[in-house]
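Work package 3, deliverable 3.1, input record:
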Amino acid sequence: MKNIDSSRVTIKDIAKALNVSISTVSRVLSNHPAISEATRKLVNDKVKEMGFSIDPIASSFRSKKTKSIGVVCPRIDIDFHSKVISGIEEYAYQQGYQITIFQSQDNYQKEKEIVQMIESTLAAGLIICPGLETRKYDHLKKIKKANIPLVVYDRSTDGLKTNKVMINDLEASFKATEHLIKAGCKSIAHISGDQEVSIFKARLLGYKKALEQYNLEIREELIKEAKHLSHQEGLNLAQELIQGKTSFDGIVCANDYTAAAAIQTLKKVRRIPEDLKIIGFSNYPISTMIEPQLSTIDDSAYHMGKVAAKLLIQQIEDRDLDLLDYQEVLIKTELIVRESSSH
Amino acid sequence: MKNIDSSRVTIKDIAKALNVSISTVSRVLSNHPAISEATRKLVNDKVKEMGFSIDPIASSFRSKKTKSIGVVCPRIDIDFHSKVISGIEEYAYQQGYQITIFQSQDNYQKEKEIVQMIESTLAAGLIICPGLETRKYDHLKKIKKANIPLVVYDRSTDGLKTNKVMINDLEASFKATEHLIKAGCKSIAHISGDQEVSIFKARLLGYKKALEQYNLEIREELIKEAKHLSHQEGLNLAQELIQGKTSFDGIVCANDYTAAAAIQTLKKVRRIPEDLKIIGFSNYPISTMIEPQLSTIDDSAYHMGKVAAKLLIQQIEDRDLDLLDYQEVLIKTELIVRESSSH
DNA sequence: TTTATTTATGCAAACATTTGCATAAATAAA
DNA sequence: TTTATTTATGCAAATGTTTGCATAAATAAA
């Protein structure tokens, strides 16, 4: 069966039916000011009557503008990213934009390939969380050079001057640590993330800064790195902490999986929160499903997505805004106190 | 600053530089057979040299074809959907398609709006998981009428004849229940999902079928409905079960959150798995993080996404395939036995 | 050789919309 | 009234690619 494609109603059909020019119709549709109320109504009514809708492709073709935002992240099925994307979609849709999603799989080559493709595609803009392998930003610089609005989220990109939306990881981690201190902890351990990654470095820094500020000693043997922050790593490292000779009465974890693991392991030998307080990071679903329920930092991923989209669309629509070179937004996180750290 | 738009290299530039016709260049680019090896090479080299890439918008405009697949789901940040989407993206990207994502928020009006928009957008195809509120499928029928390939995933759509990819929920639930029976359970409870939703109905049915087949009595008082399958509902219903007078030695749960809740609640009064065996559904991350670790059914969400994309692209590219009206694919699930049901 | 067939290339139209420029109509100023 | 200004509309070009049809060149058949 051939696609007979019940021939779409075009702007031309409207014009003919109304005996006005094509340009007039086009102008009504794009809210051009130099149109009388009378014809505006006339056209709009006809548009409805004939069930016309503008052909976005033809429009983009002529105007060289798209309503499509490219979004690149390492993986969609990571809790954090899916929330960010959800936020992006919500805001973008509301503003009349669509989002086209790509996964880099943390693969630098693929990321470059995707970005280049997006560039050649007339995307209205690009929102990206660079992959773990990404150390050079030439691909993103090219995007900027091509005058495509760009927003980077979550991962810091040293040396690349562009719009960024990030969690204030340092401050959040500081807050978490401070919370344990104020709850009475004197010797606090830290299960950190991959120290090659800026946000996990920042979390470690925030932890240290809090200890310093409250005159607690920083003990390297209480700092354990979990490259992937997996539950299993958490189990192992918690075990290491138990077997170490330095005692501790609190643990700040760089995510909730490791924190959950720490709770599981340690509640067999210590009372939580009476003798040991634990706090996680990210507010994953699991944090309310374990016992005791896990205190954590809400990473506002959804909100972050909204802000990223807002920042980008602002750029897209207000091109003259590039009087300012770029802006960096730090998203506030929220300390959520549950049982695992109460006193 | 005006967007000076460093004027893209076009097919025309290539043609001029090589003194061949535009059509020749176009044909090389689309692998038309009637092109000599010599010119093919000539053109391809020049294309590389000048850094040309085809303008997808112009191409779509002329050919009335897009490489963009619309994907509609209730929410992106639900574990299941983010996995499905991840699978879709992976397969689609590999095949040269992009995916454009929308969230219906389980809102019927919004879903219709989105679908209509996708229709007017020349999308190559549409993959959708209809929202909970969706009972009528006129919007999807319109898509079919417009000859846009369509695949529905996860939710059954009674009365709509179209390509579907679904988990064999009935069989999966049967398998889960059978597993408990074979592990020695004689009286099995069920925490079910919203009985307005086909997949949860199927899970209940599978449970009942297994009981019947093994000559166990179906006791309505052991069947509890958790509308949203939340952790909290799970806690409540587990409590109800305890307080009920009918004893039980197994629970089949319609998801892992309620199963986790059941474990939490019941392990205080019973030994799991010795006296009570529990199995969940979906294989969420949490299932390996609780104690005892939760047996469950892996829902193959990622795989489902891949299959959905494959089915769709097959349709897109092989239009004559619509000799067959539509196909329904049932995805096999996997029983994962962990501690909570071992014997 | 001449004719028929195949192979490779070019011409030009078509696609639906946007937009700069021109012009007609209406209003205001002189 | 005439002239200047503003407001509303129309004309036609331009956008980058694809594709049906025509044609030229090359090869095969007669």
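Residues 301-317 of chain A form the longest helix (17 residues).
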